[in-house]
Amino acid sequence: MQAYELEKTGDGARIVLRDRETPAAGAHEIVLRVKAAALNKRDLFILNGTYPLPAKHGVVPLSDGAGEVVAVGQRVTRFKVGDRAAGNYFARWKSGPIEPDLFDQLGCALDGMLTEFAVLHEEWAVRVAEHLSWEEAATLACAGVTAWNSIVGPVPVVAGQTVLTLGSGGVSLFALQFAKALGARVIATTSSSEKAVRLRALGADVVINYAEQPQWGKAVREATGGAGVDLIVEAFGADTIEQSMRAVGLHGQIMLLIVRGMKKQEFQISAQSYGSTMATIRRVFVGNRASFEAMNRAITQAKLRPVIERVFPFSEAREAYRYYMRGESFGKVVIVRPAKAGAFRGRQSHRGKS
Questions:
Q1: Is the model's pTM score more than 0.90?
Q2: DSSP secondary-structure letter at 252?
Q3: Which of 38, 226, 339, 342 would bridge 139 by S-S if both were Cys, CB 3.0 to 4.6 A apart?
Q4: Going along 106-247, which residue ranges are E strands?
Q5: Helix, strand or coil, per DSSP, at residue 65
Q6: Are residues 10 and 304 in contact, defined by beta-carbon separation less than 8 angstroms?
Q7: CA distance 285 to 145
Q8: Rounded mean pLDDT of 16-29?
Q9: Please, how many CA atoms are within 13 Å of residue 42, restricted to the half-sphere of its CB?
């Protein structure tokens, strides 16, 4: 089979396409024929050598991907051949608060999804919604679960509240969709008039152009009658936290995804903005398998569909990385395997298809 490997990070970083032995399913493992995989911002951090967790040399990149189960181990009970499944971002984190021994991630310490076949312990995977295409199903593990946990926990958004999303990346668009599905009002920011139109089409009630209004925290206040928003999905960290503090309501929440900035190296909040609110800043780092499964139930119920910016063939994975690095995407960048991929020739389980 073919798989990409992360050969070097930082200066001279690169991924290379290798031939690997087709994996076989161990007793508690499943083998996925990966149909599609998706890029996230963390994959760029890993490639650049700036991610807080060290990547294993030669690891298969990308946490996000979905595919068909083509083999199951003799003791597997959660899946059967033919099921549609995706890997969990924190492979071993099933539920509850995360612990230090659960930090292993697909595409970092563990082989990820930029491959023809992926082998996973059955506890590391979830079923994906039947109404989604493979490309859509591949986008959920990181950005989808991050947005879900930003909106529904630990203090969930309720109907009638106001949510602020920043930009048009995968997490922000998922958060917009989830917030609208829960009956919330959504304010979104962008620097593009074209993206503003698309954000409104996706459900945003108010769109603020931050290039035209650099002090957009004040504009958000004005759009809420001075009250501020109930929850902010803070996707940019140091570059935007000051304006987020000025936009949040008295007892609101700021769900902080990253602490490093695109431009700034220090995380700073002015005394004036901090002193004007009782808001809570909560750190969000994707989520556990239980959250992934709950999100998939909500996606199925609401028939939500992820927003995809562009799809690249597997042979052009490096081009997909370069395109994503431009930071101009509206939604997800996805890499797909050819429709007529090679046959699975790994060891089959006697359980077979039920």
A1: yes
A2: E
A3: 38
A4: 117-121, 125-127, 162-166, 185-190, 206-209, 229-234
A5: strand
A6: no
A7: 9
A8: 95
A9: 25
CA-based nearest residue to 128, from 181, 87, 81, 94: 87
Q: How confident is the model at residue 353 (pLDDT cuts 50, 70, 90)?
A: very low
Report d(CA 28, CA 351) in Å as an integer: 12
For residue 354, the model assigns a pLDDT of 33
CA distance 196 to 208: 8
Instruction: Name the pairing type of β-strands 308-313 and 332-336.
Output: parallel
Helix (H) or strand (E) holding 333: strand 332-336
Interaxial angle between packed helices 193-202 and 170-181, expressed in degrees from 0 to 180 and rounded to the nearest 10: 30
* Max Cα distance, the chain (Å): 66
Percentage of the chain exceeding pLDDT 90? 83
DSSP code, position 212: T
The burial of 44, by beta-carbon neighbours within 10 Å (0-12 exposed, 13-18 middle, 19 or more buried), is given as: middle
Report yes or no: 257 and 234 within 8 Å, Cβ to Cβ: yes
Is omega for the bond preceding 97 within 30 degrees of 0, making it cis?
A: no
Q: How many residues comprise the chain?
A: 354
Q: What is the DSSP secondary structure assignment for residue 341, as one 8-state letter? A: P
φ, ψ of residue 319 to 5 degrees: the values are: -65, -35
Residue 133 contacts residue 104 (beta carbons within 8 Å): no
Query: DSSP alpha helices (H): ranges in 91-189?
Result: 134-137, 145-152, 170-181
Reported as a single tens digit per residue, the pLDDT across 95-123 is: 999 999 999 999 999 999 999 999 999 99
